[in-house]
Every structure is written in structure tokens, then in C-alpha cells.
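Exercise: predict the structure of this protein bound to pyridoxal-5'-phosphate.
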Amino acid sequence: MKSLKELTRPNIWSLAPYSSARNEYSGHVAHVFLDANENPYNAPYNRYPDPLQLEVKERLSAIKGVPADCIFLGNGSDEAIDLVYRCFCEPGKDNVVAICPTYGMYEVCADINNVEYRSVMLDEQYQVSADKLLAAADANTKAIWICSPNNPTGNNINREEIIKVIESFDGFVIVDEAYIDFSSEPTILRQLAQYPNLIVLHTMSKAWGSAAIRMGMAFAQKDVIDIFNKVKYPYNVNLLTQEQALKRLNDTISVEQWVNILKLERGRLMKAFAELPICEKVYPTDANFFLAKMTDAQGIYDYLVNEGIIVRNRTRITLCHNCLRVTIGTKEENSELLGALRFYKA
Ligand SMILES: *Cc1c(COP(=O)(O)O)cnc(C)c1O
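Solution:
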């Protein structure tokens, strides 16, 4: 791996970050706070929130088995994705490599930051070899994006290939595990301490049932997290979000129950899809959605919209011709979808 200094944009490496009132004072004994121009009324929302969200991170640390100072929290994973570009990729010069098809935000953020985005096509099994990814990289490649389980294909990317990329590539490898709670494979987080170029993304938007609060996380070694922290907005995660996140993190039982039900429903729905005459193939999945190749994705999509049921039409995505992406809903929602599909006439 290149040194962190070589991988970081020079202006970011030498950046003197904004120092907030909350940064400058962090003792425990004070009880009169006249330092941040806040209104003394309307507690607790009158006060600026903890810029480093330490209470949430302590809880996450226990759940994920990662030290608190190796965790970055952001306004969804999307903030961490954007920060990878802003911290490490020089616009107009550096590039990144990613599998294709995959989550759209990697490319949108690359475009916004004027960073070249190199796509490496998955094979028919929606897999990729480490060699193919590495071959797409050059001296200006700062990051390789791997989403596993992958969106929209649903499958895990082979772990041995991911490890090979991490061990062979001299820049960052970001493994986006947004759907890891639904996967049969363990998280790659256990290897975080071993690899200084590994960044892992998790989110509260999927299994944790909290897409509305916007809480995403990046895990990496402390010196990488320190760079994210210096570039992020000082108060990037608001107090309402921190409160709701803590509440959710203190009720892991519910999450386990949701995941178990969703995995059972996933099995039921996929089996039923496979038996539909209008379904040509159901792709294996490790996420809370699956991809299904239909006889006429557009026609079926339009029909379902008319019935008030929305799935994702992926027919125009590379390697996903005539595919619908179906998120697993409640038992009742899934049954309604199946009922509607059984009545579909081309
Ligand atoms: C849904 C999803 C996310 C979550 O993004 P948030 O900004 O945290 O809501 C991240 N990565 C992938 C691949 C996703 O599908």
C-alpha cells in the first residue's frame, strides 16, 4: 500500500480543520456553557450535538467489535462515499475502479467530484476476478469499490477475490456491506486491523429499519477515520438522529427478528417467482431483495404500478436486461405482489 500521505490529496493532508466550540472544550466539570452562541432555552435541542457522536460510537463499537476511533458516522453511507472522493481523489487526475453493475452512488459521486470512474463488468454469475479489477487500475487509481452483497444483483462477491484485491492493490479498497445482516457470509470487519487500505461501509438504512434518520458508517484504521473527521461538516449527524440511532442500537432483538422474518419471506417469494410463467430466472441473493428475469420487465412493471405496487425496473442496467429488483416486504405485501403477478396478462 502507498503511504496515507501519498493517497491523500495534498490540500486535505495539510488542512487545518474548523475548530468548533465543542471541539475546543471537552472536559467534564463545567456547567455553564457560554461558548457557542447557543440559546440557553429549549434544552436539549438548543445545544450543538457531539461532533464525534461518541455515545453512538461506543454502542456500535460493542455491537460491531471495532474500536470507537475506527468508526466514522455520516449522513447515510452516502456521506462516507462522497468523502472518499473529497479526501483522496484529485479532480481531473485520479481515478477509481468499480464493479458493474453496482450501487449508483459511487459513479454519481465520482462525476460530482470530477474523478474518472472505471467500470469492470461482472461475469454471467455476477462475479469478478481480482486480476480483472487490478488490471483496470493504474498509478492514479486511488480506490476500488466492491459492494458485497452487491446491489442490484444481490449476491456476495467471492471473498477470496476481495481479499486478493485488498492484498495486491496499493490504494483503498472499499467494501460496501449495506446488506451484510441478510448475508450467509460473515462481515469482513474482522480483518480491519489487518489491512490499512480497507474501508468497510455499513448503514442503518436496511436491516436496522432506519433509512429516515440517515445514519451510515465507515470502518477503517484510525488514521483514515481521522482524515474523514477533519473533512466532514463539523456537526454532520444531528441530535435527533443520534438519539434515534441509540434507541435502535439498544434494541438489537427487534433487528434480529426482522432479519429472520425477511429471510423466510425471501425464500417464499423467490420460490413463488420461480413458478410464475412470466418469470424466466430468479438470481441467488444474500440481501433483502432479489433480481428476477421476467418475460417483459417493462410491461410487468407498468402493470404493477397500475395496481399500486412498485418494484424496481432494472431492465436498462448492464447485465440486467428484463430484470426486476424486488425488495422483500411484509408477508401481506409480498402476498399482494404475488397475487397481482398471477393475474398478469401480456
Ligand atoms: C442502500 C444502500 C446503501 C445505504 O445508503 P445510506 O446512504 O446509508 O442510506 C449503501 N450502499 C448500498 C450498496 C446500498 O444499496
